[in-house]
């Protein structure tokens, strides 16, 4: 099975995000960037599939600026085989990402595209679903467990209040959730080995995809500051306070 893993370069999850004073977006100047955490989980899963003899090749693809090459290198150091960088400095919305990935899928003919369930910068949770629709492939979102079942895949999904298992014929699109696995840290020898692995460089124009945004960001604001807490003497005082605040 050939597995295609899209990985996005996003603001590191430990960074305290600052909104730009003009409210047009968030400040990216001198901010640490890393692989989207859900994409680390999908890379890990694809590499485990290769180690288990289920996957034959793991190809990672990233759409983003030149620095997204580092994100691809991280995936290669975790065990992926080769990478594709679709270089652009523009903001690429999920629909355009899905269109580009559909073209890559047409070229590469993977049996499985394994994406993160969402990117932690835009929190869209759209790309995998849009890609499945464009390719007309079955999809299993929010994967908690992925198993090979003959020619098909059995995907256990995290749903409200429990788990749901679906069977997908391949080729298929699967998006991964948080509890699927714990991604490994790349070892130094593997980081060195990754430097020799191939990364092909492309542009959105090579795929004939128009990436012009379809949405306008009206404004971006900080979450409202939390008001301070108060200490109460006992339960009776707490109940009285809740009653006067209209909470009960
Ligand atoms: P989103 O729909 O933006 O929340 O992203 C969901 C998933 O789509 C991510 O976890 C990635 O696997 C993939 N993805 C989104 N944007 C990109 C990108 N620029 N490059 C590669 N993969 C992406």
Protein model, in words:
The chain is built from six helices and eleven strands. With about 250 residues, it is of the alpha/beta class. The protein has one domain: 3-Layer(aba) Sandwich (Rossmann fold), CATH 3.40.50.620. A nine-stranded mixed sheet has the order 9-8-7-10-6-1-4-5-11, sandwiched between helices. The protein has a two-stranded antiparallel ribbon with strand order 2-3. Helix 2 (about 70-80) packs across helix 5 and helix 3 (about 95-110) packs across helix 4 (about 125-135). The longest helix is centred in the N-terminal third of the chain and has 15 residues, at about 35-50. The chain is globular and about 65 Å long. The model has no long low-confidence stretch (mean pLDDT about 95). Bound molecules: adenosine monophosphate. Adenosine monophosphate binds near residues 6, 62, 64, 94 and 115.
């Amino acid at each position: 099975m050939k597995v295609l893993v899209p990985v996005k370069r996003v603001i590191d999850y430990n960074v305290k995000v600052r909104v730009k004073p003009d409210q047009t977006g968030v400040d990216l100047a001198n901010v640490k960037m890393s692989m989207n955490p859900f994409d680390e989980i999908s890379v890990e899963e694809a590499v485990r599939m290769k180690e288990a003899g289920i996957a034959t090749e793991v190809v990672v693809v990233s759409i983003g600026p030149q620095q997204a090459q580092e994100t691809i290198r991280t995936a290669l150091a975790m065990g992926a085989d080769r990478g594709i960088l679709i270089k652009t400095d523009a903001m690429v919305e999920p629909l355009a990402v899905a269109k580009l990935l559909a073209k890559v899928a047409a070229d590469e003919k993977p049996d499985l595209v394994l994406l993160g369930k969402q990117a932690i910068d835009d929190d869209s949770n759209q790309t995998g679903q849009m890609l499945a629709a464009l390719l007309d492939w079955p999809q299993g979102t929010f994967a908690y467990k992925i198993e090979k079942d003959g020619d098909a895949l059995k995907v256990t999904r995290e749903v409200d209040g429990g788990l749901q298992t679906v069977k997908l014929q391949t080729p298929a699109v699967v998006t991964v959730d948080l509890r699927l696995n714990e991604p490994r840290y790349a070892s130094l020898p593997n980081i060195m080995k990754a430097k020799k692995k191939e990364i092909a460089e492309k542009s959105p124009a090579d795929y004939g995809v128009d990436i012009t945004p379809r949405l306008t960001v009206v404004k971006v604001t900080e979450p409202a500051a939390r008001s301070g807490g108060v200490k109460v003497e006992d339960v009776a005082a707490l109940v009285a306070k809740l009653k006067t605040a209209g909470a009960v």
